[in-house]
Specification:
This protein is of the alpha+beta class and 113 residues long. The chain is built from four helices and three strands. It has one domain.
Length: 113
């Protein structure tokens, strides 16, 4: 049974590829996003809104799972300083924004050709 009382947040995988030493490093971690209402989803999916990746992240990224770790493999605490470090990794900002867009795109309106 589907319960209409849904949480304010949802989790979604963030898949990324970053350059390593002569190889591509692929990874994945769990993002915790704020759940937007359908009216906000439609605004975001409307190309005229012009939100940047950073604006999407600022508005909707509320945390990450324990599967994102520091250099020693310890879970990385979600805070402003660690978020800034993560977003400075080339391609990570795009990966997080794309993950959110994938999630809400699955919840958005379906349009037939």
């Amino acid at each position: 049974m589907f319960k209409i009382d849904v949480s304010d947040t949802f989790t979604w995988p963030v898949k990324f590829s970053i350059p390593g030493n002569g190889e591509v490093i692929e990874g994945e971690f769990t993002a915790i996003f704020k759940r937007p209402p359908q009216s906000r989803i439609e605004q975001i999916l409307d190309k005229k809104t012009g939100l940047t990746q950073q604006e999407l992240i600022n508005e909707f990224l509320k945390g990450w799972g324990e599967d994102l770790g520091d250099a020693n493999g310890n879970p990385l605490k979600f805070n402003a300083a660690n978020l800034a470090k993560v977003l400075e990794i080339g391609g990570m900002r795009l990966a997080i924004a794309a993950s959110f867009m994938e999630a809400i795109g699955n919840a958005g309106p379906r349009i037939k050709n």
